[in-house]
Specification:
The complex is a heterodimer of chains A (about 210) and B (about 240). With about 210 residues, chain A is mainly alpha-helical. Helix content of chain A is about 85%, strand content about 0%. Chain A contains 4 helices and no strands. Chain A has helices spanning about 5-45, 55-105, 115-165, 170-205. The longest helix of chain A is centred in the middle third of the chain and has 52 residues, at about 55-105. The two termini of chain A are about 15 Å apart. The mean pLDDT of chain A is about 85. Helix content of chain B is about 25%, strand content about 25%. Chain B is globular. The model of chain B has no long low-confidence stretch (mean pLDDT about 95). The chains are: A mainly alpha (about 210), B alpha/beta (about 240). The complex binds fe (ii) ion (FE2) (2 copies). One fe (ii) ion binds near residues 76, 78, 79 and 160 of chain B.
Chain lengths: ~210, ~240
Amino acid sequence: MTDTVQQTKSQFVAVASIAAELSAVMEVAKEISLAAANAKAIAFRAGEKARGFQPITDFINELAKETITLVNAINEHALLLYRLTVNEYRTSTAFDKFQTATKMAEGAQYQSSLQTSTEAVEQRMRECRKQFKRHVGQLLDQLQEVMHPARAARVIAANSRIEASQAGEYLLSLQAVAESVDRAAQIIHNNVQRCRSALNVINITE
Amino acid sequence: MKMTPIYEGSHRWIMFGRDTNKPSNIIDTNQYIVRTANRCLLMDPGGIELFAPMLAAVLHHAPVEEITDLFASHQDPDIISSLGLWDQALPKAKLHASSLWEGFIRHFGCESIDYVGIPDNGGKIKLESTELKIIPAHYLHSSANFHIYDAEAKILMSGDVGAALEASGAPIYVDNFDSHIDHMRFFHQRWMPSNQAKRDWIERIRKLDIDMMAPQHGRIFKGDNVKRFLDWFEGLEVGIAV
Ligand SMILES: [Fe+2]
Ligand SMILES: [Fe+2]
């Protein structure tokens, strides 16, 4: 097995783990959006006491939406990476086998007739590789972007705690909301970080 | 990969098999080619493991651009799982295989090769002036299954019918039919599902003039052994697992 075939195997693993991390991020983003709706209802009931809390819930909701949109875009990109990996696997396996066959066909009358196909397959393999690298770069940028709303959410969660402290009997429920947003943002942050390191692993193995 | 010419006339038949380098846990298979002046047909080209040795062997007989036709008797992996690799090796080729199996066989990878679906009643493959008949052999053992008959060479390529499971390195031709039965009995009883399909096939095959019956596993039947096989198969109860 050549390095390329081995390489595509680790790409499969990386792309699959990205997909898994992303679907977890998606779940969490949905949870945040639910928590925001919840908080809004509580803040509404708390009225004057939670006045500072209301714009915060809207903002949290925005962030959740933004995360979902970004993750959708990243997912599409990851799918493209998967397709490129399939193609690269296919062409690199063929390239390997063609080389083996050429060696085995030593002395055969038509040995050289395979050369054109071998070159074509090698060309396609390199093209996939190049495209893959380009898209990994773009995906890393997108992952960087998805960290922003998560980071902002954590800051807001901290603010929410302060606002919640003025909400009297609603203190506990609003605090719980702030905590769940904070926890969710942290999970997103960690998952995205893992995506990035999965991608970096493939980048390094080149 | 051993290469054995089995017919020389206006065109040639060559059998490939008894690959000594193949991993021992995959079933031994026979591949056949028909070579005309400028074209070449590969019948049941085999599995992925066998692709490189098979291609290397074929390169002794034809350049890749003249390998214009592939035939798959049915959808099994030992028959055609190498398709995705041939697909990238052959600049212009057709695959003749059952229409019924098209959506399945394409899973092996078939982008540049042209899939020519064979209807249930069979058809033909024309290679320059050589015409080969595609004979239906449904349920033997696959639900859509075909054999190739060459009226000039009087050869029937019979896919899994006539297959034998025996130690690697067995001779190419059946020498003693009676002792060969031991290598065939279980295979046919267990892999072939239908007595009705079997009887129908035998009836049609008896009408053909056959010098050689060439299966995808085991040994080739010559002369009277073809008739002996048909008689033996006729009396055999198949589909024994239920
Ligand atoms: Fe089969
Ligand atoms: Fe078979």
